[in-house]
Amino acid sequence: MTNIKFFITTSLLTLSALSYSQERNNINVPDLDSLITLKCDFHIHTVFSDGLVWPTVRVQEAYSEGLDAISITEHIEYRPHKKDVVSDHNRSFDIAQKTADEYGVILIKGSEITRPMAPGHSNAIFIKDSNSLDKKKYMDAYKEAKKQNAFIFWNHPGWYSQQPDTTLWWPEHSELLEKGMMHGIEVANGVLLTPEAIDWCLENKLTMLGSSDIHQPINTDVDFAKGEHRSMTFVLAKERSEQGIREAFEARRTLVYYQDMLIGEEQYLRPFFEKSIEISEVSRDEKSILIRIENKTDIEFKFNKTDHDVSLEYFRDYHIKPNSRHDIRIRLKNGITGGDMNFDVTNLWIGNNKPLPFTIKL
Amino acid sequence: MTNIKFFITTSLLTLSALSYSQERNNINVPDLDSLITLKCDFHIHTVFSDGLVWPTVRVQEAYSEGLDAISITEHIEYRPHKKDVVSDHNRSFDIAQKTADEYGVILIKGSEITRPMAPGHSNAIFIKDSNSLDKKKYMDAYKEAKKQNAFIFWNHPGWYSQQPDTTLWWPEHSELLEKGMMHGIEVANGVLLTPEAIDWCLENKLTMLGSSDIHQPINTDVDFAKGEHRSMTFVLAKERSEQGIREAFEARRTLVYYQDMLIGEEQYLRPFFEKSIEISEVSRDEKSILIRIENKTDIEFKFNKTDHDVSLEYFRDYHIKPNSRHDIRIRLKNGITGGDMNFDVTNLWIGNNKPLPFTIKL
Amino acid sequence: MTNIKFFITTSLLTLSALSYSQERNNINVPDLDSLITLKCDFHIHTVFSDGLVWPTVRVQEAYSEGLDAISITEHIEYRPHKKDVVSDHNRSFDIAQKTADEYGVILIKGSEITRPMAPGHSNAIFIKDSNSLDKKKYMDAYKEAKKQNAFIFWNHPGWYSQQPDTTLWWPEHSELLEKGMMHGIEVANGVLLTPEAIDWCLENKLTMLGSSDIHQPINTDVDFAKGEHRSMTFVLAKERSEQGIREAFEARRTLVYYQDMLIGEEQYLRPFFEKSIEISEVSRDEKSILIRIENKTDIEFKFNKTDHDVSLEYFRDYHIKPNSRHDIRIRLKNGITGGDMNFDVTNLWIGNNKPLPFTIKL
Amino acid sequence: MTNIKFFITTSLLTLSALSYSQERNNINVPDLDSLITLKCDFHIHTVFSDGLVWPTVRVQEAYSEGLDAISITEHIEYRPHKKDVVSDHNRSFDIAQKTADEYGVILIKGSEITRPMAPGHSNAIFIKDSNSLDKKKYMDAYKEAKKQNAFIFWNHPGWYSQQPDTTLWWPEHSELLEKGMMHGIEVANGVLLTPEAIDWCLENKLTMLGSSDIHQPINTDVDFAKGEHRSMTFVLAKERSEQGIREAFEARRTLVYYQDMLIGEEQYLRPFFEKSIEISEVSRDEKSILIRIENKTDIEFKFNKTDHDVSLEYFRDYHIKPNSRHDIRIRLKNGITGGDMNFDVTNLWIGNNKPLPFTIKL
Question: Residue B35 gets which letter from DSSP?
């Protein structure tokens, strides 16, 4: 990942918008055959709820970081600045939209239904009117969201403020699920991972999401100079459009990009990994084989050796650094000439604490 | 300077402010005998005029960067968000004050009188009521500021949007000066340097200031990971307080810290530089002298050799990097045993394009 | 940790050493009562064995990173450059010593006894003559080291090249231990952690060490801009001297600093942690307590909640970032007014995978 | 430019070269029509003269930084390590060649003829045998270089150690030039710029070069995390090969990349700049025109307004940041509808202190 810097020389200039500059980062990850990997964040706040920046800033941040799509999801029920920041629930979307068009960032309309546990918080996105979600009873808000054909996902199930010691699935969530009012879950929210949510998604055919839930300027929470990135969702879409994202959501074609981890269904994570690296044999003799692994992504892959023929000697743990090539020697003992080099990719999860197993045939 | 990172893990947490963290940078520069070097920025915007962040963010940024004092100076006459962000001209100060107290950042009340050239823009700080500055005629606004005992300084005189090709001093500025309504000038504003203002300050006994004029989140304009800093004013104060700053302003004890430059009156810049470095002789023989220069500040000093005895051979240009020690050899030719090692410190200016001359006696 | 940069403007200058500059980093960690925390690395290579830099570079790197002491430990039995780099086993120490004196870096003479498993590789440090360690049989080399009153430690026990699948303790190690020829073990070597070695040290009263085992220029392996550091040993010494280090070694007063972890005996790690943070109560009411934790070190501390009164609600996981202050709110439920806030500091280990437990009394 | 990190996990591994990893940076600059921009450094030292790293390190550094070609140019006459590092003048090339082949870095054989002023130091590259350059008289060394069909360039003419106060051209240089023994000059060497050399090259049809003259590990002198790069030569070649470089040298198709500057003949620098940016008109009305400038290179371009129709109001100074897009508004006064937007690109030099003039037609 290139060092992110979005410099906007506004000093002096804002009065008449005389000039403006913007750097664009590129998140290096592969597309799959016939699917584009869109980098997305569907949980974001501004001064119009309890965030601390103007809506346009969210678009500029997204553009600079190389995101394709965002949703600004103000709390319906929590607006601590409302004495100063008036206007209705649709306003921050409206303000951001012009900037989004200018930058080519897909802006999806959404809101956060913000209730005590259960059911806690949910985002409803792809909605038409946020104001209608402002209801007394939570179920009425969900009903309205469903009526607007929203895609609804449960936010940060493991948030200790609402689930102090254990991450529970409540009867309310079963009800929402049955009524078609829950379509996905935030597996990752900011620095919080809720591993239980991975298996809930797999069991209930729900879409996995990762979001920033950013309130501050993004640079405050994410140190780009150190290679950090916001928690986000990779949407494996047939096209780069709002419709493309919706279709991929329905089909659950997402990966969660959280810190150094990728989380998702094996059917998508395995080909994603295979497209991320190139493996070739450099040389071979009786004693050893030298293979080369090229990693052209911004993601580090962490290998941990699993069961194998002990005559095949190779690393125990190995880190494939981003954007680099690695030459790895495998020793051949006891006269063998090849075999299965088995390992887990420990930072790619296809279930709760379940790494992706991988084999290189030698 | 340590790498600045002010991480505030607000995701999830804002609703009930469950936890909060903040890193504090330290800007390494010397104090003078009996004077404390306060790092200050008196030109800042928020969503309450045409800025893009909430007022509290400005305090957190200031704390994190190691600033001692700031002034939030919303435009009186330009409030593009006013449809959404209501409230009066005093409001952003009031919002920021609680956070400022919490962080120990000195918050000085101010506003920007925002008029066409001439006289252009000025900041009035140390005021009591911003609302009263909202007048039809600019002179009435200045009068009101003076009435409130404001310290008034002319902002960004060289801004091409108001002075397209030449930086002019207009009759209006003479009038303001005569009437005691101009006490300082912004020599540096964001990335803009107005070198003419240096001599105007020297000639008219005005205080030199440097400001960020920040509208975006500060990290958007300043790349701390690359060692950048906002444009700011070093106030050489007798005490760390609002009163201390005011007294230093009256006495014109300021230095402007702009990019890699320091600008100020020689009577303050010279001792500041002398306190920044330590020079010692390491060894000496007939052929050469080895001296050591220790730089314990975050500022790089750039030396450029000036007239000297040619039998004394030393660098032509030399950069004293921040926080480092340098061993420099001076060759003695033609039987000399010492002499004057003369150079300019080219990034320290005591006038418009006038570097500080310096001599090391050998 | 300040960003490390050791710029030595040698271009052009080496011929006559006309000038030279060096930045010094400071590793912020506490001293204990009457004990100084020395930052040390006792496993380093240069071109005189299979390393790739000149010995003086090792001293400059150490100085720049803020190390107090190093040992250059060339392989006795492996010198792939010996066709080009001649001279005996003592030579790299001799070359480095002058630079070490100049920089005030303590240079301890050592060598690496480099044998197949068992017993594998060991460093013998505090020796007088490296050449005498060049013996046919490994036991003779260890005997000679002991004769020279060496401190001997087993290097990288978990190195898969010598222990392909399991980290074993061999009879040879028991023999060395019994004969007084093993005084410590490398728990961490470069990127390799050998967790089994922690318990071996605890059981056998051996000193724990962490080392870089650096062969390349240090910047090649360690990305200082990202806050990385080399694997090293904190020696808790009564004085900053070679003798001080030796005395601390005998008393096993060391901590291993590996990636984001500290590993050591609880009797030293607990007070080290207590000196690293300051805990204070900010405010308190019936519903909650607000505490402040200040971390003045360069080390991040990772808290993980353990068994506690469920009426005391606080974080599940919390990261105390380096050089920052954290305000953390604890909720009081069911009428309680205080209690024990229990957590593990998961990146501080007092045994193999055994985090330091900690309690804050509220 | 991506953040450079060349991590080579040699700890433990060097003994049997079990694995090895390398990151590759890409220097983003344009190719010209039918010419490839090769990034090259033809002035480098190792332990085989007065450098401080092993020759293979120089290849790895070059690969990691994204260089295409290097020359290791040990001093013939200055070998301070020769007591320890034996072997002849050809040896460091031979050692580096295998690694160069492995990495696809073009390694051109060369040596530095290292004499007092005049004529000072010169590099002879594309030679066959370095040993033959070891002559008593400097002219014999140059003759031998010429006999080997070397490309010879004068190094660091402005080095104060040999030209303490003024950069002079000596009769010896005229003689070398007349005899066909000087084909280029180092305009930039490490941190040293010799601006006089630019005009000497233009007048005498000599090739301009930029070199690192690196002695230390490259990371010691160049802070990649801050976006720095080594001084280098861009060779505009018909093919990526040793022959391609030689042909471009003969035709003087080079640009010097020094700090934030590019220096070269206008016939190459102008199209290079034109290929670096894309200019388009975004919108236009009676009062103003909005243009967009995209900079897809790693180089910042600095504009300074020059003579123009004062009815056309635009920036005075403007910095086009690397890898970014800039929207710039030009105001139309007095009823004009367009005109010439004139500026210098102040960091692109086509002569000594002579910036490239540029016009955008509106």
Answer: B
- Residues from chain A that touch D22, judged by Cβ atoms under 8 A, are 324-326
Task: Say whether domain C275-361 belongs to CATH 3.40.50.2300.
Answer: no
| Number of CB atoms found within 10 A of residue B265's CB | 19
CATH C-level class of B36-264: alpha beta
Q: Which helix (H) or strand (E) holds A273?
A: helix A266-276
Q: Which ranges of chain B does DSSP label H, i.e. alpha helix?
A: 55-65, 91-103, 138-147, 171-178, 196-204, 218-221, 242-250, 266-276
Integer Cα distance of B320 and B345 in angstroms: 10
d(CA B288, nearest CA chain C) in Å: 10
The helix/strand/coil state of B13 is coil
At D233-268, the pLDDT tens digits run 999 999 999 999 999 999 999 999 999 999 999 999
Instruction: Over range B43-72, report the average pLDDT.
Output: 97
Reply yes or no on whether the pLDDT at B246 is more than 70: yes
Place of tokens 């690109």: D345
Find the length of chain C: 362
Nearest CB to C18; choose among B18, B225, B329? B329
* Chain A nearest CA to B222, separation (Å): 7
Q: Which residue of A has its CA nearest to C158?
A: A316
d(CA B215, CA B222): 12
> Which CATH fold topology does D277-348+355-361 show?
Immunoglobulin-like (2.60.40)
Q: CA angle at residue D209 from D207 to D213, to 5 degrees?
A: 150
Q: Across the interface, which of C18, C19, C327 has its CB nearest the CB of B19?
A: C327
CATH topology of domain A271-361: Immunoglobulin-like (2.60.40)
- For residues D283-296, average pLDDT: 94
What is the rounded distance in angstroms from the CA atom of residue A325 to the CA atom of residue C260?
A: 26
For residues A328 and A289, is the Cβ–Cβ distance under 8 A?
no
> For B179-217, b where at least 16 C-beta lie within 10 A, e where not — what string?
eebbbbbbbbbbbbbbbbbbebbbeeebbbbbbbbbbbb
What ipTM is given for this predicted complex?
Answer: 0.93
Query: Where along chain B do its domains lie?
Result: 36-264, 277-361
Cα–chain center distance at B36? 15
**Distance (Å, rounded) from C-alpha B31 to C-alpha B237?**
9
C123-173 pLDDT, tens digit each: 999 999 999 999 999 999 999 999 999 999 999 999 999 999 999 999 999
Distances, alpha carbon D319 to alpha carbons A8, A57, B189, B304, in Å: 11, 22, 16, 26
Question: DSSP label at B7?
Answer: -
* Residue A352 CA: distances (Å) to CA of A347, A348, B104: 12, 11, 44
pTM, entire model:
0.93
User: Which residues of B fall within a CB distance of 8 Å from D314?
Assistant: 160
Q: Give per-residue pLDDT as tens, D114-126.
A: 999 999 999 999 9
At residue C76, the 3 state secondary structure works out as coil
- We find that the CATH architecture of domain B277-361 is Sandwich (2.60)
Task: Count CB-CB contacts under 10 A for residue A265.
Answer: 19
Neighbours of C145 (CB within 10 A): 26
Query: What is d(CA D169, CA C322) in angstroms, rounded to the nearest whole number?
Result: 55
**Structural contact between residues C171 and C148, judged by C-beta atoms closer than 8 angstroms:** no
Q: Tokens representing C56?
A: 């003086």
In a mutational test of the B interface, the residue from D316, D323, D330 whose CB has the highest number of chain B CBs within 10 Å is D316
Token pair recorded at residue C79: 């010198």
Per the structure block, which two tokens stand in for C206?
Answer: 């051996």
